[in-house]
Specification:
The protein has 453 residues and is mostly helical. The chain contains 18 helices and no strands. α4 packs across α5. The longest helix is centred in the first third of the chain and has 37 residues. It starts with 11 loop residues before the first helix and ends with a helix.
Length: 453
């Protein structure tokens, strides 16, 4: 009987698609989860609340993306062990991950709670939204343990080829968050604080319920008390995940710098606030545009890690090609929606016409990203699965600091009242990244052929 969690045999397209769809579903729910804060605050809260959530969530997302990069190392090591048929080592990997991420959560919580005003200042949060941004950062910082715990559990299950349980976990969080937003913002009128409390409460409930579900099902690993330590497996997943975490750190810092550039845009205070809030709305829609590429990258890393562990390189390369084809095809429709329907989509989040127009400007420039990122993320998934995470880090830094940031800074100065050109910085950097990855792929595969000969 064909095991759906065994990616080393069977139809590549079918298995990749079946593994990717729950990940895509989870990402869709995560986007709804994140977008609910902006949508409900935009409809029932204050206008400056949108800018505050944009600033505050950008800081929290920095933490989440960096730790997801580190957790990807856990996924890769687990996938390799499964491909090598060494499932007895999985418990030690997971035990080490639990201890490591718990320690990290404590440190990050302190940094967010103590230095929340500094983070808001670094983002050049508009004065009228500054206090609310600090409030959002502190509340989410206090609950960061739950946010980190959920993302770690999801990485563990993707590592064993199970993408369905993370979908269930995020569905629980999404439902609770939406009801929480409606209760705290629409009913109790707590504005940004209510949205932050709903976020933490949802993640806490999701984490608790996911642990209860895990106790009721049969898993391919067991965790013993002695596994909860900083053992050799910690070094393995840290070495795999640290380059990606560092890449995410600097990439997210580049996006935070972009937010700071945008918060400083505008020849008048009205245009400045409209640009900041419009970007906050556009960022939620960008999350929708990026759904398929993100699902591809997460699927590809686990899929290819198993095949590399089993010594099936040709199968790994074919999987990457299928990923590019699937993502690029769907990306065509996402690009069209972002380019032609930006204002209509922004209207779902805010009734403020100026904010809608600024969001639409940004999305028109950004739209091509839906296609080119599918190609880039398929490459990244392929190299991550081969544990070439140092290269993944370098190419990400090159995109951010050679193209995206310098170009964005120039565009905000040359066109201070137009978001279109800032939006185009993202696909420009991605195209540059595709060129780098294509060259490295040709060199890497050629070297593998020479090693075989």
């Amino acid at each position: 009987m064909d095991d759906p969690k065994d990616f080393t045999r069977g139809n590549i397209f079918s298995k990749l698609l079946k593994f990717m769809l729950p990940i895509l579903g989870a990402l869709i729910l995560q986007t709804m989860y994140s977008a609910a804060d902006v949508l409900i605050v935009g409809q029932f809260g204050t206008s400056e609340g949108i800018s505050a959530i944009s600033t505050g969530s950008s800081v929290i997302n920095l933490v989440i993306f960096v730790l997801c990069g580190l957790a990807m190392g856990v996924t890769i090591v687990m996938g390799r062990y499964i491909g090598e048929e060494k499932k007895d080592r999985l418990g030690r990997v997971i035990g080490g991950a639990i201890v490591t991420f718990t320690a990290i959560a404590v440190v990050i919580a302190l940094l967010l709670l103590l230095f929340a005003p500094l983070w808001a200042d670094l983002m050049q949060s508009p004065p009228e939204a500054h206090a609310k941004a600090v409030e959002y950062i502190r509340i989410c910082g206090g609950g960061i343990f739950f946010i980190i715990g959920y993302n770690l559990i999801s990485s563990i299950f993707r590592g064993i080829g199970n993408s369905t349980l993370p979908l269930i976990f995020v569905a629980i969080a999404c439902v609770i968050n939406i009801f929480g937003d409606l209760l705290f913002v629409a009913v109790f009128h707590m504005d940004v604080a209510g949205a932050a409390i709903a976020t933490v409460l949802a993640q806490a409930c999701s984490l608790i319920m996911s642990l209860l579900i895990c106790r009721k099902i049969e898993l391919p690993f067991t965790i013993r008390k002695e596994d909860l330590r900083f053992g050799p497996e910690v070094r393995m997943f840290v070495l795999s995940g640290l380059p990606m975490a560092f890449q995410e750190l600097l990439t997210q810092i580049s996006f935070l710098a972009l937010l700071a550039f945008i918060n400083g845009m505008g020849t008048t205070e009205a245009i400045r606030l409209a640009s900041s809030s419009g970007y906050g709305v556009a960022n939620k829609l960008v999350g929708v545009v990026m759904l398929v590429p993100s699902a591809l990258m997460q699927s590809m890393s686990a899929f290819i890690a198993q095949n590399v562990g089993a010594g099936k390189e040709k199968r790994a390369q074919r999987a990457m090609g299928y990923g590019m084809l699937m993502g690029g095809t769907i990306g065509l429709f996402m690009t069209a929606a972002a380019f032609f329907g930006g204002q209509q989509l922004a209207a779902l989040f805010t009734q403020h016409l100026d904010y809608q127009l600024k969001a639409a400007e940004y999305l028109q420039g950004y739209a091509l990203e839906a296609i080119v990122t599918s190609i880039l993320f398929s490459y990244i998934g392929y190299f991550s699965g081969h544990n070439k995470t140092f290269f993944v880090m370098l190419q990400g830094l090159a995109q951010s600091f050679i193209v995206r940031l310098p170009m964005a800074y120039i565009m905000t100065k040359v066109f201070p009242d137009n978001m279109l050109y800032v939006g185009f910085c993202a696909p420009s950097a991605t195209i540059f990244g595709i060129l780098i990855n294509t060259c490295y792929f040709l060199v890497y595969t050629r070297q593998m052929q020479l090693d075989e000969d």
